[in-house]
Amino acid sequence: MVTTDYHEPVLLAETLGQLDLKSGSVIIDGTLGGGGHAEAILDHTGPDGILIGLDLDSDAIREAATRLRGYGERVRLFQSSFRRIDDIAAEIAPTSIDGIVLDLGVSSHQLDAPERGFRFGTTGDPGSVASESPLDMRMDGLGDRPPASSLLATWSAEKLEKIFSKYGQLPGSRRLANGIIDRRKSEPLETAADLVHLIRELGIGRGRKHNPATLVFQALRIAVNDELGALEEGLQAAIRVLRPGGRLAVIAYHSLEDRLVKQTFRAAAKGCTCPPEWPACACGIEPTLKLLTRRPIVPDGGEIEKNPRARSARLRAAARLEAA
User: Fold this and answer.
1) Are strands 50-55 and 75-79 parallel, antiparallel or unpaired?
2) CATH of region 12-108+227-320, choose from 3.40.109.10, 3.40.50.720, 3.40.50.150, 1.10.10.10
3) How far apart are CA 154 and CA 86, in angstroms?
4) First-to-last CA distance in the chain?
5) What is the full per-residue pLDDT of the chain (324 aa) written as tens digits?
6) 146-225 carries CATH number 3.30.470.20
């Protein structure tokens, strides 16, 4: 098959194992990227397994279509958010869904494309900034959502502080928010360099081991794309469309994502929401998932050495209960 360096799939063998793939399985890859996980899934579900791939990024769809063209009609691709998994599944009904994989975050290709504005450092020099990179950060690039530069130009100090604190867990969030308000009175913040220079001028995160701009860019990206809202909706949609016994595997890269996945899985595995002191259940909510990973699966040293961006990956998996 066609190979590509568009994106190195993380925790590949572990993800395939959790999905319990069989010949003829119908699998949704809700975060298609360059098709690394998808290609392996197709190889393990041949000769007649189906791969349904979703991605907001049109570049990813084109790249995956090239990579997976040898699988013919076994591949069905949609430019869509995984929050619409149930809508996509309805389009291909009455096919049952045997497994779903979500590899969250930003692909290596998106990070390395300066015009997308997801990163601030230039290759080979961690102290430099990509001065020409626009503050865009939209996953789809379609203009349906305002870019990061628009958020910085229009949001209040209170709203900016909230996203830096909540999504970036950034010390000095209020100082940065106020600094943005002051700076935009005289000049707009339009490039990665503009924002990084301001962070340095304000002394945000001074003395930290890691560059505080990483947290700022992470927070903006999450806000621009409503990533946590999409994840919450996408997890619930995935649970709904899985057949009994179907598997859901999710790879998260920061604590906010991983916490949401963990809480969603645990709530679905518990079912009843009544206070524990009540003598009997009154809510009638039945468990819908069985946890397959009590603790997240993490990359080993060999994978991290080969692909440093895998270091923060956490894989959790669950199975749809037969009774559900």
Assistant:
1) parallel
2) 3.40.50.150
3) 34
4) 38
5) 334 445 579 999 999 999 999 999 999 999 999 899 999 999 999 999 999 999 999 989 999 999 999 999 999 999 999 999 999 998 886 678 999 999 997 755 555 555 555 666 544 444 444 567 889 999 886 667 899 999 999 999 999 999 999 999 999 999 999 999 999 999 999 999 999 999 999 999 876 667 899 899 999 999 999 999 999 999 999 999 999 999 999 999 999 999 999 999 999 999 999 998 999 999 999 999 999 999 999 999 999 999 998 999 999 999 999 865
6) no
